[in-house]
Amino acid sequence: QVQLVESGGGLVQPGGSLRLSCARSGTIFTVYTMGWYRQAPGQQRELVASITNFGRTNYVESVKGRFTISRDNAKNTVYLQMNSLEPEDTAVYYCNFATAWGSEYWGQGTQVTVSS
Question: Which residues pair with 81 in a beta bridge?
Answer without folding.
Answer: 19, 68
